[in-house]
């Protein structure tokens, strides 16, 4: 750090100090006068309370940046006063520095919420140094809290904008697909090829928009889950059946294995269906021609477990670190030109975790196949 930066830092610290309000609590005026005169020289605004009850009332009113609190006072002592301050939501975060001549009371001060202590007789330079240190910490905490609030607000605005734009794009795309379907039966082969290109790209955009809307609803807490007792075997079988045609197109065989006839779980039916569909679709997309995909369902007293294992391109160690991230760029690619939005696995993870489940992927490496596992507690 160069001399200019040091000077700027010291200047900022002094500026923070001059804006600060200090509440000094002591029942003996002779202990306060010299200290107050000393602190006043540095531009601090000093408030005085003579006992614990007065300190609690005054702190709530003025909201000081630091409280210097004597331990031994009539009525409620410093420890009780600090306890009351920490129980109050409005004064809980105000740093309390104890002033005490009793060395054995230091630990108790920390236990009731104090952040520091100075020993009596007071060394004024030490008191100022500790005040400055804790004001700086407090200032940085407030700054970080404000930055965090701003980031949360920006993220919410981004989600709102994304939801609005995606929703507004979805209807025109549906119209394009509807018109393309009507025209398809009344045009020549050359135009039909162009129309199919329009239709394929429109479907690709619609899939991306649908998943953007979906993940936006999940992240913003707008997707409500309806937990009910559902039978997973039938749901998983239906999902396997829905993917039979794209699998057959690539000569991929889907095998569904189950250990028990019925497998029940309290979960959201729509979310579970979407999880199964995304994982099986992903396995089909990334599997080469003429391979096998095994889908297994197990249950025990504590968990329900679904496994989807393919013979595809596998997952590199680097990709395993980011495979469930949004828009992750992975080394593997769909094997027959299928569309991939980069959001499917991220949606799976968020849906699984929203129902207290866990999902992960295992692979021995590139071209060694992949195993996706989903577990839910029972």
Automatic annotation (TrEMBL):
**Reaction catalysed by this chain?**
ATP + protein L-histidine = ADP + protein N-phospho-L-histidine
Q: Mind naming one GO cellular-component term on file for this protein?
A: plasma membrane
Keywords of this entry: Kinase, Phosphoprotein, Transferase
Where do the Response regulatory domain residues begin and end? Answer: 21-135
* Domain Histidine kinase: start-end pairs: 164-378
4-aspartylphosphate modifications at: 70
Q: Which domain of life is it from?
A: Bacteria
**Which GO molecular-function terms appear in the entry?**
phosphorelay sensor kinase activity
Enzyme Commission number: 2.7.13.3
One of this protein's Pfam families, by short name? Response_reg
Q: Please give the Gene3D superfamilies that the UniProt record associates with this protein.
A: 1.10.287.130, 3.40.50.2300, Histidine kinase-like ATPase, C-terminal domain
- PROSITE patterns linked to this entry: HIS_KIN, RESPONSE_REGULATORY
EC class, as a word, reads: transferase
Q: InterPro entries under this entry?
A: CheY-like_superfamily, HATPase_C_sf, HATPase_dom, His_kinase_dom, HisK_dim/P_dom, HisK_dim/P_sf, Sig_transdc_His_kin-like_C, Sig_transdc_resp-reg_receiver
| Coiled coil stretches, renumbered | none
Q: Any idea what this protein is called?
A: histidine kinase
- Which organism encodes this protein? Candidatus Thiomargarita nelsonii
Recite the lineage of the species: Bacteria, Pseudomonadati, Pseudomonadota, Gammaproteobacteria, Thiotrichales
């Amino acid at each position: 750090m160069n001399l200019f930066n040091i000077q700027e830092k010291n200047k900022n610290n002094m500026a923070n100090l001059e804006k600060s309000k200090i509440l000094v609590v002591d029942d003996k005026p002779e202990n306060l006068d010299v200290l107050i005169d000393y602190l006043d020289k540095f531009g601090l605004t000093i408030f005085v309370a003579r006992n614990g009850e007065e300190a609690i009332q005054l702190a709530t009113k003025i909201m000081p940046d630091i409280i210097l609190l004597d331990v031994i006072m009539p009525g409620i002592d410093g420890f009780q006063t600090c306890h009351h301050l920490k129980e109050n939501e409005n004064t809980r975060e105000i740093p309390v520095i104890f002033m005490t001549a009793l060395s054995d009371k230091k630990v108790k001060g920390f236990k009731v919420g104090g952040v520091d202590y100075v020993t009596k007789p007071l060394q004024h330079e030490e008191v100022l140094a500790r005040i400055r240190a804790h004001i700086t910490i407090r200032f940085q905490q407030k700054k970080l809290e404000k930055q965090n609030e701003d980031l949360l607000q920006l993220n919410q605005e981004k989600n709102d904008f994304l939801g609005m734009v995606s929703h507004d794009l979805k209807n025109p795309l549906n119209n394009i697909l509807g018109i393309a379907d009507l025209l398809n039966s009344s045009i020549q082969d050359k135009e039909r090829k162009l129309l199919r290109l329009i239709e394929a790209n429109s479907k690709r955009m619609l899939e991306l928009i649908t998943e953007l809307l979906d993940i936006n609803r999940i992240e913003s807490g707008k997707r409500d889950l309806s937990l009910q007792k559902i039978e997973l075997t039938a749901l998983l079988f239906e999902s396997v059946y829905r993917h039979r045609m794209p699998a057959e197109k690539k000569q991929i065989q889907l095998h569904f294995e189950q250990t028990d006839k019925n497998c029940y779980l309290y979960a959201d039916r729509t979310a579970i269906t979407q999880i199964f569909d995304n994982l099986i679709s992903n396995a089909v997309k990334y599997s080469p021609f003429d391979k096998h995909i095994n889908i297994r369902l197990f249950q025990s007293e504590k968990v329900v477990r679904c496994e989807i294992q393919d013979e595809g391109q596998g997952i590199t160690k680097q990709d395993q670190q980011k495979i469930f991230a949004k828009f992750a760029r992975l080394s593997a690619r769909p094997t027959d030109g299928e569309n991939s939005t980069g959001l499917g696995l991220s949606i799976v993870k968020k849906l699984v975790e929203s129902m207290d489940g866990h999902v992960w992927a295992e692979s021995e490496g590139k071209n060694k196949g992949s195993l996706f596992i989903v577990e839910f507690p029972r």
